[in-house]
Design a protein that fits this description.
The structure holds two protein chains of two kinds. Chain A is α+β, with helices and mostly antiparallel strands. Helices cover about 40% and strands about 20% of the residues of chain A.
Chain lengths: ~600, ~375
């Protein structure tokens, strides 16, 4: 039995050291990023519960007289489902890390950004975060807390309860910001977010006392996305490794509930035995034990631990290939790795339990759109045994599996049900309300995929009306988030700029607005800042097709409009010139009365039009 | 006043005027009736494109062919020019009725009182030519004149027909600077002359010299300054001097290709005025300065420019330059590539041109 010791840093500390990556590099960017994180969390919370969002954003300077950058209080209030009181400290007071294999479209990922904002606020102003929540619309729980960065633990400074009549969450932080610089971006962000979220009411009270409110335009929400399994093209070795770990044995959590379960199944709920006694009892009752309990018993046997001892550790890894077991000892505060004795009868038992499903079962159960037949064909393609248990794969075999999953071409295309595009009607209504154009057309392409990730392109084009002439405006969205920075290198702009607008009768300086929305479980951003979408071939093609469709519609409208303009111009010309001709001919012909030329004007429809 | 009524010239002028007024009235009535019937009125305008300008050997001038284009008020792109043409007919009708005259520039400005816009004067000038073509009458007939003026001097008595001067007579040798050939002189009756010859000369300076040297008396000549390319009124006057007074017309120009063509236009018209007749003097003779004179009289010369030479090549394609001195002189010009002005004779003394050259040439002209 060998022991190895590792030093760990807490996730909070890790993020604290790398906060630039998350968009908290300076007071301007940080204020903008914090706004985004909280607004998007609010919208996501409402979306998931099918609640029409009502989001209120306040930014207030702590001391308005001070020059920027200076501390601001940022508050975001939503009407979402709220959060259970006992979850709040954990959700807002720790940096969580986790592994999620389910896929669905959401604005943010894992709520990391919000915690980063809280962390940033605390670092720059040393003020606590205030979180108020009501899940029932009756009781409001209010927490004031700070983060213990080294221990990654919340420090609750105050917890109060009061009566309320509204559900929802209200988060307020104090942070260093520069509104004079970030203001226009934040206002753009709120404006554009409202455009792509026409089913929400978004209100923004800015530090200068101005109020921006975008009221709900449509009362129906797009259907919520479903969580689905990953597509084989969309996973890498590391993901597969985690999926195997996640499925085939869940390293048991040694909490009170689990220990109680083991005790109960062994009939030891009221009675405590020593190690040998437990082992004997287990052997006797083995056939009736559930799989997780068998795993715990096996582990106890390897570690020579009774209930008291086993409760003081956390299992971190059971590595069958190398026959090692790793745990964290709370008593000694260190990681311990031990070899598992192969000779032990429990080892075989554990191995069988944790080696998990066969390859075919793994593929059909853990991936989307793979059936028995496809799984068997794939096994042949990958030169892997269909019946081999997934838990016993060597590293080389895992790499082989991962490579083959990428290369095999006969998988069905990804399932788009995990996507939540806005939909043509809400997009149309939103654009109509925002731009009041003379012409409007929207289009949603059917789902497509790149590298195993499904995506959908939605686009709209508007012309004339209250749109001012000038440079064509392109609003870019990804998963209902506006993309404001780095527009130069974005794939949407590339396609727009590649388009020969003359072909569509759109001249320079035309009043045109284009709205583009990409929905995907993974947007291929070019940079860490997540502001521009890379020009992946499949995505570029879909954008191009959508834009072509819209441009043709616009061209048809422009032709019609052109004809109408000629028609109008023509009518005006005749109204101007015919009376003159009548006047001159009357005098020339020596008549007293003008001819009845109005008959001719009535006949205008037969006039030739020549350019 | 009574004199003019009885005079033959006044009668001719009146007839001509009435005919024009009838023409204008008919055109107006046609448009009026079309409108009244609910039809879009239209004009047929003889085409003035190069392809429709042909040389008529019998008439000895350029004329328009048979191609005509329809200018219709139904066609939106023609509506504006149709209206402009109607306005001009209307304006010309007033001018003729009121016996008033107008310059080309006046026309351009007058249009603005009637909300008929012309972009610029070339546009209004062009419409005037259209009306000439429709009516087959020169613009002078409807009292529209260019600004350019040439002059006349000699023993010629005329009688005015313009309002306020009707019947008044004038002898064109009374003023030593000569008389401007304007609207009143153009429309005046030619009453009497003792002259036996008309000398048209290209340059004002020489015109003055000729008067000083009493060329009118010495050669019994009426002297006309064409001031470069002869204006229409001048060409019309030359034609009347030739036809009504039976006077031969001779022409003196600079010794270059442009001078040769000035003579040709007096003789047989220009392509620009192919839509008009009665502006030519087919029997007129070009006395010089010929290309062959340059060597013969040892005249000081100037080298030709590129455009001079190009012009020679152009004229060589013209049917009128295919024979006689017209052809040979062009060829000599092309050969020597030099030119001489009328003033070049001053090398031999200021009066050399009138004392020596002119008599010599007039003698020669008899055999032309």
């Amino acid at each position: 039995m060998s022991k190895e010791v590792f030093n760990q840093i807490s996730p909070s500390e890790f993020f604290y050291r790398n906060r630039d990556l998350a968009g908290f590099s300076n007071p301007t960017r940080s204020l903008y990023t914090a706004v985004r994180e909280f607004v998007e969390n609010g919208l996501d919370a409402c979306d998931q519960q099918g609640i029409l969002p009502d989001i209120h954003l306040y930014i207030k300077a702590v001391d308005p007289e001070k020059p920027d950058p200076k501390p601001y209080v940022l508050t975001v209030k939503d009407n979402g489902p709220g959060m259970d009181s006992n979850q709040i400290p954990l959700a807002f007071g720790t940096v969580l890390y986790g592994s999620k294999f389910g896929l669905k479209q959401a604005r943010g990922m894992f709520g990391l950004g919000a915690t980063m904002a809280i962390l940033y606020g605390q670092i720059t102003t040393n003020k606590p975060v205030t979180v108020s929540s009501s899940v029932d619309g009756k009781v409001l729980h209010k927490y004031e807390m700070m983060l213990d960065i080294q221990k990654n633990k919340p420090v609750i400074m105050k917890h109060t309860k009061e009566d309320t009549n509204k559900k929802g969450l209200n988060v307020s932080i104090t942070l260093d910001g520069d509104y004079s610089k970030a203001g226009s971006k934040i206002r753009d962000y709120v404006y554009q977010t409202s455009l792509i979220t026409p089913y929400a009411t978004i209100t923004f009270d800015d530090p200068k006392g101005e109020k921006f409110q975008y009221k709900r335009i449509v009362d129906t929400m797009p259907p919520a996305p479903t969580i689905i399994r990953p597509h084989p093209h969309g996973v890498d070795v590391e993901t597969i490794r985690r999926m195997i770990a996640d499925t085939h044995y869940q390293v048991p959590v040694l909490d009170n509930a689990m220990i109680d379960k083991v005790k109960k199944e062994l009939g030891l709920s009221k009675k405590n035995l020593n190690f040998e006694g437990i082992m004997a009892r287990a052997e006797k009752k083995w056939s009736s034990l559930s799989r997780p309990v068998r795993v715990i018993v096996a582990v106890m046997s390897f570690l020579n631990m009774d209930f008291d001892k086993i409760m003081k550790i956390r299992l971190d890894d059971i590595d069958l290939v190398h026959k090692r077991l790793t745990y964290y000892d709370f008593g000694d505060s260190k990681l311990v790795t031990v070899d598992m004795p192969k000779s032990s009868s429990y080892y075989k038992q554990l191995a069988n339990t944790v080696q998990g499903d066969s390859l075919v079962t793994f593929l059909t159960k853990r991936f989307q759109r793979i059936g028995q037949a496809t799984a068997i064909k794939f096994s042949e393609f990958a030169s892997l045994k269909a019946e081999k248990r997934i838990g016993s794969f060597t590293n080389e075999e895992l790499v082989q599996l991962s490579d083959s999953l990428q290369k095999y071409e006969d998988f069905l295309t990804p399932d788009p049900s995990c996507l939540a595009p806005l939909g043509e009607e809400p997009l149309r209504k939103g654009m109509k309300q925002f731009f009041k154009p003379d012409f409007l057309e929207v289009y949603q392409r059917s789902a497509s995929a790149y590298s195993g990730f499904p995506f959908v392109i939605e686009m709209g084009i508007a012309y004339g009306g209250s749109i001012p002439p000038g440079k064509m405006t392109v609003y870019r969205f990804a998963n209902r988030i506006p993309l404001l920075y780095d527009e130069g290198s974005d794939v949407v702009l590339k396609v727009v700029n590649d388009t020969d607008w003359n072909r569509y009768k759109v001249k320079n300086e035309s009043p045109v607005v284009i709205v583009s929305h990409i929905c995907s479980t993974r947007i291929p951003y070019k940079t860490v800042g997540k502001e521009n979408v890379a020009d992946r071939e499949e995505i570029e093609k879909e954008i191009r097709l959508a834009l072509q469709y819209l441009s043709r519609k616009l061209a048809a409208y422009m032709s019609k409009r052109g004809l109408a303009e000629i028609e109008k111009k023509r009518a005006n010309l005749y109204l101007k010139y015919l009376p003159l001709i009548a006047q001159f001919s009357t005098e020339l012909a020596g008549k007293n009365k003008e001819p009845d030329y109005k008959k001719v004007i009535k006949d205008l429809n037969n006039v030739q039009v020549e350019e | 006043m009574s004199k003019s009524k009885n005079s033959k010239a006044a009668k001719v002028a009146t007839e001509k005027r009435d005919a024009l007024l009838d023409l204008l009235k008919n055109q107006g009535a046609q448009v009026y009736n079309d409108l009244d019937k609910g039809k879009f009125p239209q004009f047929s305008v003889p085409s003035r494109s190069v392809s429709n300008i042909v040389y008529d050997k019998k008439l000895r001038q350029y004329i328009l062919g048979n191609t005509a284009s329809l200018r219709s008020s139904r066609n939106m792109s023609q509506l504006r020019s149709f209206t402009q043409l109607m306005w001009l007919a209307f304006f010309a009708n007033r001018l003729v009725h009121e016996k008033k005259s107008s310059t080309l520039r006046d026309v351009y400005y007058s249009s603005q009182a009637f909300e008929v816009e012309f972009e610029d004067q070339p546009e209004s000038d062009n419409i005037i030519v259209d009306l000439e073509a429709v009516l087959t009458r020169p613009r002078e007939d409807f009292h529209i004149f260019p600004e350019e003026r040439s002059s006349i001097f000699g023993d010629l008595t005329i009688e005015y027909t313009v309002p306020g001067y009707e019947g008044r007579r004038m002898k064109l040798s009374d003023h030593p600077d000569g008389y401007l050939i304007g609207p009143s002189l153009s429309s005046a009756e030619l009453v009497d002359t003792s002259a036996e010859l008309v000398i048209a000369i290209e340059k004002g300076g020489l015109f003055t010299r000729f008067i000083e040297e009493k060329v009118d008396k010495k050669f019994k000549a009426i002297i006309v300054d064409t001031a470069g390319q002869a204006p229409r009124a001048t060409r019309y006057l030359l034609k009347r001097l030739h036809e009504q007074m039976k006077l031969p017309v001779v022409i003196l120009t600079d010794g270059d290709v442009y001078g040769e063509h000035i003579a040709m236009v007096i003789k047989s018209g220009s392509a620009n005025a192919a839509h008009l007749r009665e502006l030519t003097v087919p029997d007129a003779k070009w006395l010089g300065v010929w290309a062959s004179d340059i060597d013969k009289f040892k005249l000081p010369t100037i080298p030709m420019t590129e455009s001079d030479i190009k012009r020679i090549y152009d004229l060589q394609k013209d049917p009128r330059y295919q024979e006689g001195i017209w052809k040979t002189e062009l060829e000599i010009f092309l050969k020597i590539k030099r030119k001489a002005e009328l003033e070049a004779f001053s090398k031999y003394g200021l009066t050399n041109i009138t004392d020596k050259y002119l008599p010599h040439k007039l003698e020669l002209a008899k055999s032309l």
